[in-house]
Fold these 3 entries.
Entry 1:
Amino acid sequence: MVSPATPRRVTVRDIAAHTGVSIATVSRVLNEQTNVAPRTRDLVRRAAAELGAQTDTTGRAAVRQGAVFVRCPYVLTDYFGLIVSSIAETLELHGRTLILNAGEAAQQAAVLPTLPTRAGIGGAIVILPPEPSEQLVALRGRGFPFVVVDPRTAMPRDIAAVSAAHFAGARSLTAHLTRLGHRRIGVIAGPDNWLASEARLAGHASALAEAGVLPSPELVRATEPTTRHGYQAANALLDLPQRPTALIGFNDKAAVGALTAAAQRGLRVPEDLSVAGFDDIDLAQATSPMLTTVRQPLAEMGRMAVSLLIRLLDGHQVDALHVELATELVVRGSTGPAPVR
């Protein structure tokens, strides 16, 4: 005797196609949001019943219910603020409530292990999580849906993650400098244990190799990506007996610190020293000269994270769990030909 096939799970997309309303509207109905017309609400509920969607005691389809917990344990300035804002706007389009956990004080809270048992939370988006990867693996093992944005360490294949193309971005920036004749390029790198730091240094080394230059450890300073630390690292690099002709900051803030260090030494940018950053936040256009940098698609990273999470919450199959978004080299006035010595 042949066993009957297990019925295919009805998804939000199926209900939207059946009713002709948007996926976001269907999601609002299934999440008991109030901003839906009564006639549309009835239409969606009837469609869920007709399609044979599994329901709970309230008659709602068996999508993953609840708010989305967004953890960003940092000050929401330009970089993190852009990501969180895009997440909030995109969740609103999908009718999902956002619960925000932010600020540096939140780094000390043991949040991740508690998420699966918190009432009213359906999934989470975690941004540059400071927690050890073991906690993320344990959370995934409990079947709790979440997406990591800008992971600090390499993520296992079964954990959804969104990041920028750090290797390619750094490679394009260093290649820009080598085309200008620079061969001795100082790098203000991020912390050693960050995935982005490792990828960018690899991209930097790749561009140097193409130009026939071997990377020099003395030209790399790993530090926190702040203006103050960038200033200190730049001073250390500029104090070398043979100073670099160009400096690359891990981010735009570190590059601004390098600009300050150069100005205090009477070095002209870019005539005596080229300086470049990474991210292309508003600060990059507030300097004089304006910064050459690598643009990260910060808002798109937030939107993509929501897109992945909604698919997980709705029970869709997701084949590409690791998404890497392209970066763009933005050339401005802070880089120029290498000085003749």
Entry 2:
Amino acid sequence: MAKDQRTQDYVVKRTSEGKSKKEIRRCLRRYVAREIYRVLQNPRPGLLTNDLRPRRLALHLTQTAVALELSAWPKAISRIERGATQDRVLSERYRTWLSEQPKVSA
């Protein structure tokens, strides 16, 4: 309850309502449980990244070369291409960077 600003604000609000620390903790646990349940019942759709590897290979680029350009680890690029991670920011940077690369003729 001491680090997150939203939690601190909540504690101040509930304390002003006359709740004890024990009651506030109970309310916070219930709130977290409801949030987790909501996410489990309504998951976000998965990020489609199955187009990235074929595009990279068509440009004759290695994962290491892409990782150097994007300031990322090669393993992060591999995980995105395989769909093993849902890093939306890096995936979008990767997709944008690939689209900016000149086409390579075979």
Entry 3:
Amino acid sequence: MATALMSPYVPAGDETKMDDAVALLHETGHPISKSTLERQCRARGVTLTKRGRANYASWSDVLIVHAAWVDSRDDLP
């Protein structure tokens, strides 16, 4: 029987490194700094997991946080 091995070095699920998330979000035309993204994640209750010196978070949650951040900055009527 095969079992899943939990490695502390490999992110689980859709987790992404915050540095990678910032680089990908820069391509959207709405760049965000790593510190701002981490602060927005904490404010919205997104779990940040520390692995080594890097923080990881769910990519799905990061996208929602970024969308809310962009929406709050838009001057749409």
